[in-house]
UniProtKB/TrEMBL annotation:
Residue span(s) of domain ABC transporter: 10-244
Molecular function terms from GO: ATP binding
Principal localisation: membrane
Domain of life: Bacteria
Subcellular compartments: Cell membrane
Name of protein: Amino acid ABC transporter ATP-binding protein
Pfam families for the chain: ABC_tran (PF00005)
Amino acid sequence: MTTPPGKPEIEVRGLHKAFGANEVLRGIDLEIGQGEVVCVIGPSGSGKSTLLRCVNLLEVPTKGRVFVGGTEITDPDVDIDAVRRRIGMVFQQFNLFPHLSVTENLTLPQRRVLRRDKTEAAKVAAENLRRVGLSEKAIAYPASLSGGQQQRVAIARALAMGPEVMLFDEPTSALDPELVGDVLAVMRMLANEGMTMMVVTHEMTFAREVADRVVFMDGGVIIEDGTPAQVITNPRHDRTRHFLSRLL
Ligand code: ADP
Ligand code: MG
């Protein structure tokens, strides 16, 4: 499956999500074009993770529609596994299998989900470990790697599935400061290669330098959506200014 030309890669329309009485997303509209990098910023509890999770149906929206690659994923008849194969996700916690080697962490989902044979899966694993600069860790176990290396393995594992879109939820928030740079460098490479990316992050330097657009969320709505220069350098709303002033 590929996205029809001219279609946004991700389209969110009138999205609401409630957990019981707690309305966490209160009407989100967002379009992300093919190859676009969008950073989502905002205070804790503003609904950033929930938004990301609605984009691959880890959460089911209460109301509204979500399209990925032109396919409506909120359509009850959609083959959600087929949609999820188009979307890679990287979390704050890397969630590697501790009892599997780095290579096995990359080959297992390819074999299970994509039904690739052993040789093909191993080849794709090696290619993607090389992309994230970790070829020498192919037979290592996750516990012997630094947090930054583990997160790069998690990125390689997602890439090995051949996604059209990558979603990142605070991928560097659990890392020691000296390990953040290597992970951001891999994400920067992906952006340069034209990957469509949605990145929840507090790394304002990354957002300023890599994002095509920055979206500021607060209280379950999008307050500002614009270029980094607009949203980070010249925010129009007090809430954005207040948030940014506490980060810097
Ligand atoms: P952010 O990522 O911006 O910090 P989240 O999307 O994680 O915000 O959370 C927004 C709100 O939704 C919070 O009040 C949180 O407690 C609530 N929430 C998130 N996930 C769940 C869930 N699975 N069940 C109940 N409440 C949730
Ligand atoms: Mg979050």
